[in-house]
Task: structure prediction
Amino acid sequence: MAADALVRHVVAFGRVLRAAGLDVGPGRVAEALSGLDNVRIGVKDDVYWALRLTLVSKAEDIELFDRAFDAWFLRVRRDELPRRDEVVAKAVPDAQPGPREIDPDAEAGEGEETPGWTTSESLHTKDFASMTPQELAELKRLMKDLAARRPLRRSRRLRRHHRGDILDMRRLVRASLATGGDPLDRTFRKKMLVPRRLVVICDVSGSMEAYARALLLFVHAAVGTGKGVEAFVFGTRLTRLTPELKSKDAEEAFDAASARVVDWSGGTRIGASLKAYNDGWGRRALTRGAVVIVVSDGWERENAELVGSEMRRLQRQAYATVWVNPLKGSPEYQPLAGGMRAALPYIDRFLPGHNLAALEELATVLEGIERRHAA
Result:
């Protein structure tokens, strides 16, 4: 199997595990690829243990991993792969069902409406603006899976790889000392896939108030995926919130963010805020090579032309620019707002952001970016 094909194979296997409910993000996939560098790819047990040690973190996930491994790598015919919650429920029959295991039909007669897991169509397609506090709390867990699907890039650093194409001279010389200077044991290196930098600039003005909290749950989860994620918000001014959103507890992060942002639910100055970002952070090369997500409804209150000129600057530096607009979820929506019209020529992908299904589309787009401005 060619090196690139092996990488794609393992990345796809990680997506299968993540779809089944395992906590498998780009970091774990990168660790799995590094682990495979040190084993014999042709030996089934070596591959199995390298993947299991890097992709499985809980004992209850082992059975599901084994079934997925047999089906994916050994082509052993299996029934449809269950979700992790189904495996846990079978192993612990007396356990109380959690939010993932709620049957909407069984609960319908009790007069209490409880949000379910992603299989619940009502929560999956429900507009963020109409969600209850309980449903927003349920979103916290769902957002973690989506935010883990970050765009990848090939690293500049070389790592040891059995199918690498660059000779590792340092290891070669060290190994030759044991053979009298004869280079019998040759090792190679190659560039691996690592998460690409992600910059999120979110509108928290009054016109976005109905969606800001739910969308910031996604931003908070993205910051929690590891290094290389920067978060900014704006109303009438730009504020960097990366340190505040690094807290693992979402409520603590929101309290710290609301204390920091003085223009929350106020006016909208998109152009001035983008200019502040380009002048202050773009010049520090933060945008270069990054995927930039702008979350806004596009209602510019002052200078729409400034939005266009600053988006042009942003697109020139970024690897890809994605604009998420909650209003686009409406079938009747048209980008008539001045700021939105001015920004459209410099956007690589224009997506809705009004519900969980829309954010899944965003995660799929981010995960699939392979070439510059080809989102």
About this structure: Residues 83-119 have pLDDT under 50 and may be disordered. Strands lie at 152-160, 166-167, 188-195, 198-203, 229-234, 238-240, 291-295, 320-325, 349-352.
